[in-house]
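User: Hi! I have a protein structure encoded as tokens and I'd like to know what sequence might fold into it. I'm fairly new to this, so please keep things simple.
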């Protein structure tokens, strides 16, 4: 279970200016993150603009990510959706070479009941050859997975090993920490609250910000996991403004603007997302330079 302690990064998918997948940019990014000291990679989560990618593109990106990573770090694949049978088929047909787990978002748009969410994950757990990480992000799914449902799944299925929690509710985090199995991991799904979540007992973060700032972010997480919250706090606070700017006009447009400035990939996103405004881009660049990050 320790392989998902620390800093995971939800990889962006770099695109060329014509909108095609930029594999050189992806290679640059993966090497940047490995060199930056992060602990594991998440390929094709929400930050990877998965909703706009074809099945064939996803297969190629997963395979290429595994190839470039070359077993240097644990890999997680994002495979989710709101059609349980279709998600199950995607999981069954997934080439798991090089991957350790699947991150699967709670069904969006349909707004299932808690029993519906439970049955969805039960179905996936029973067909998956890999461990599963739950993902609760009510701001995107418009439906919250309650602590009761999370912990019920955690107790009932040994291959459901963690939850990425992006509800922002400390009441919910407290209940999960109290009622979960001992080896089940609570993972932060929001960059700004990683420090207080680890103080509660979270195992770390699946981060967006760390795409651009892997060393700074992973250093903060390592200090927190070692109990040195006083030592981690100044660096944590120094990233508050950059984090705010990176999400000000949506994810991943902000972090891609930062990555373009740092020279890793272009800032192209696929419609319906658009690039950040020039004003915000300049603010992001100024903040990166203030943090000592230069291309």
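Assistant: Happy to help. Inverse folding works backwards from shape to sequence: for each of the 295 positions I chose a residue that suits the local structure. Here it is:
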């Amino acid at each position: 279970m320790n392989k998902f302690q620390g800093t995971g990064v939800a990889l962006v998918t770099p695109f060329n200016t014509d909108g095609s997948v930029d594999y050189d940019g992806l290679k640059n990014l993966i090497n940047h993150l490995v060199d930056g000291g992060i602990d594991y990679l998440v390929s094709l989560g929400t930050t990877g603009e998965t909703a706009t990618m074809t099945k064939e593109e996803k297969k190629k990106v997963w395979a290429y990510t595994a190839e470039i990573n070359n077993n240097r770090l644990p890999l997680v694949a994002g495979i989710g959706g709101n059609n349980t049978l279709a998600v199950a088929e995607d999981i069954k047909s997934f080439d798991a070479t090089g991957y350790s787990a699947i991150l699967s978002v709670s069904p969006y748009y349909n707004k299932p009941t808690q029993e519906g969410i439970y049955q969805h994950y039960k179905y996936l757990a029973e067909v998956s050859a890999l461990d599963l990480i739950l993902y609760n992000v009510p701001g995107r799914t418009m439906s919250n997975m309650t602590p009761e449902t999370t912990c019920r799944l955690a107790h009932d299925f040994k291959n459901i090993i963690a939850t990425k929690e992006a509800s922002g509710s400390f009441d919910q985090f407290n209940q999960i920490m109290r009622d979960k199995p001992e080896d089940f991991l609570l993972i932060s799904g929001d960059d700004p609250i990683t420090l207080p979540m680890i103080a509660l007992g979270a195992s770390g973060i699946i981060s967006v910000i760390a795409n651009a700032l892997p060393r700074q972010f992973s250093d903060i997480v390592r200090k927190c996991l070692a109990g040195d919250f006083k030592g981690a706090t100044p660096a944590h606070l120094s990233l508050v403004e950059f984090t705010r700017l990176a999400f000000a006009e949506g994810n991943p447009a902000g972090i891609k603007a930062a990555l373009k400035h740092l020279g890793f990939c272009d800032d192209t996103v696929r419609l319906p997302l658009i690039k950040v405004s020039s004003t915000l881009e300049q603010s992001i660049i100024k903040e990166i330079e203030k943090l000592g990050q230069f291309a």
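A useful reference point when you look it over: The domain at 2-229 is CATH 3.20.20.70 (TIM Barrel). Feel free to ask if any position seems puzzling.
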